[in-house]
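Standup notes, protein team

Yesterday: finished cleaning the Saccharibacillus endophyticus set.
Today: Regulatory protein YycH domain-containing protein structure.
Blockers: none.

Input for Regulatory protein YycH domain-containing protein:
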Amino acid sequence: MKEQLKTAALTLLVAVSLVQSYLLIYRLPGTGQVVVSSAGYVRTDEMGEQLNVEDTLYPDRMIIHMGEDKHTIFYPNSAFYKLIYARIQARDFAAFQAQPISAEDWEKVAANNPGIELSFGTGLPVPLLQKTMRLAADPTFETADIDRIWIYTGSGEEKPRAFFFSSNGQDVYEAKQLDLTVQDVLQHVAFGEEWTPYRPLKNHTLYVPSKPIVLAEAVLETDAFTSDQMQRNLFADPAVTRNIHEQDGSEIYTDSKRSLQIEDEGRWMTYTDPAAVPAIRADATESVLSAVDFINQHGGWNGTYRAELTSGSGEDYNADLSVRFRQYYGSLPIFGSGTVRYGYMDLVLQQGTVSFYERSLLETPEEGEQGPQYTLSGGQDLIDRIVKVEEVHGLKVTDLYPAYTPRMNGDTLRLVPGWVAVLSDGTNATFN
């Protein structure tokens, strides 16, 4: 009887030991499930949500032309913007026909014809646009980068016309088949009638509000992702990394191949992987897809972002291709300054492989408190400010939009509204 009790007790102790060993090896508290990606990286902490590539592909603004040279602008996430874009996404466009951009007087079209103009900033390749819009496969323009889509209805015409503008500034493609009606376009345009009117400048390439715009500052309490979290997400074996302290206060972690640099008092990270990759022509669509995948696997997304390609297009692609994901708060983009780096993620890809990755480590809520209100200039006052910016910088202003500038106050992030003027050399000038 005594021997049976000893045997039972020993068996129980062995079972408990096995369970404890399993928990220590596979379920360490706080680490969650470990997943090794195909690239040899480890994904552990779910620091942010995962996104699909189409979640990052949308126009940076929607210009509503109402005829009689009346215009307004809707920005992302606003109610009318979302409604109109969702309806356009549900429509089919096919039978594309190429023509030179000079074939139409676009200034006259903008002034006289009700329509909707979607701006895609620096442009997106057609295969990426096909992931967010129903564009028929067509060899006529499948290699183009599209920076604008313009749908309008002419006087007396029975159906609307849809044009896709190439970012090369020379070509435009008309969709000869589309299932939008004239009434659809007029209904969408009618949403802009009671909105802030915008005045066209520079042959309808720039629009300014006819009166000042009042926007509130956003105040967000912050936390920060830790260097340990980033190490676990970016290194195949964080145990073999070593730490190097820099004189400027930054820290570098390296496994002798990849490196992770933490700067700005733990608020910013830069990751490099100088793996040798054949220098062949980069594919923009593959690069954006790979960039979204990489962020999903190595940190996730802490907010709303929009994809921007920051290198050449078409035949100008280099072996390296840069992808920027611009962060939005509400309807407006965030433009980090030299003092506060926040509001974007930058990636450089070589043949679909990420060789450079930088982002903010600040963790913020989706919605913060409302701070003081700012009155952004409009009308002639804004036009005078644009002229002043051009005189100071010796460059033309090619684009203008409201945006937030981040400022830190202790652990509090303030998003201050103002105007961002894009200059002809691609740099920005911010004022409020």
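Follow-up from PR in the comments: Residues 1-44, 312-317 have pLDDT under 50 and may be disordered.
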